[in-house]
Fold this sequence. Notes:
Elements: H1 11-43, H2 45-65, H3 68-82, H4 84-88
Helix pairs in contact: 1-2, 2-3
Amino acid sequence: MMNLSDKGSQTRPFSFSLKILFGLVPGYLILNIILNYFGIKIMGMYGAAMATVITQGVSLLLCNLLFGKDGREVFLWQIKAINPRYIFIRR
Length: 91
C-alpha cells in the first residue's frame, strides 16, 4: 500500500488527470447551457434531455483524447462502437 504523502511518480499522473478534468468541466457546462437554451426553446423538456445526453457524450469522448496512449485507445474503441460500419462488420 502506498503512502499518500510520498512524492513518487504515482501521484503525478493522478494530479495531472484532475487538472485536465477540472479544466474541461467549465467548457462542458457552457455547452450544456447553450444546448439547453435552444433545446428547451424548440422542443421543451425533450430538448433539455437531448442537450444533456449530447453534452455527456461529447465529454466522455473528448476526455479520453487527453489521457495519453491508453485514453486514445479507448477513444478509438468508442468511435468504432458508434460507427455503423463497425457495428455490422465482424472481424
